[in-house]
C-alpha cells in the first residue's frame, strides 16, 4: 500500500459553480478548507484546496466455506 500524498488543487471557475466543484473534489479526496479569492478581473473565482489521496480500500479475498 502506498502512503497517501498531500497536494494543492487550484481551480478557476464561475462563482456559481464553485460550491459544486468543491463538493465534487471532496467526494474524490480528503480535503481541507476551501480558500476562495476573486480573479483579477473579478469575473471568476479561484479556489485553493489542500487535498490528500484517500487510502485505497483493502483487497478482500473470498474463501470457500467448504474448504
Write the layout of secondary structure elements.
Elements: E1 6-13, H1 18-28, E2 30-38, E3 45-52
Antiparallel strand pairs: 1-3, 2-3
Distance linking N and C termini = 29 Å
With strands numbered from the N-terminus, the spatial order across the biggest sheet is 1-3-2
Percent of residues in beta strands?
35-45%
| Overall form | elongated
Q: What sequence of helices (H) and strands (E) makes up the elements? A: EHEE
Oligomer: single chain
Taking all residues together, what is the mean pLDDT? 87
- Report the C-alpha radius of gyration, rounded: 18 Å
Can you summarize the main beta sheet? 3 strands, antiparallel
Characterise the protein shown here:
By secondary structure, the protein is an alpha+beta fold. Helices cover 16% and strands 37% of the residues. Strands 1-3-2 form a three-stranded antiparallel sheet, with helices on one face. The longest helix has 11 residues, at 18-28. It starts with 5 loop residues before the first strand and ends in a 15-residue tail after the last strand.
Produce a short descriptive summary.
By secondary structure, the chain is an alpha+beta fold. It is built from 1 helix and 3 strands; from the N terminus they run βαββ.
Features:
67 residues; single chain; alpha+beta; 1 helix; elongated; three-stranded antiparallel beta sheet
Amino acid at each position: 500500500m502506498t502512503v497517501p500524498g498531500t497536494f494543492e488543487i487550484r481551480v478557476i471557475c464561475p462563482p456559481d459553480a464553485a460550491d459544486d466543484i468543491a463538493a465534487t473534489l471532496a467526494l474524490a479526496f480528503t480535503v481541507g478548507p476551501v480558500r476562495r479569492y476573486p480573479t483579477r478581473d473579478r469575473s471568476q473565482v479561484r479556489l485553493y484546496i489542500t487535498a490528500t489521496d484517500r487510502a485505497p480500500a483493502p483487497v478482500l479475498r473470498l474463501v470457500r466455506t467448504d474448504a
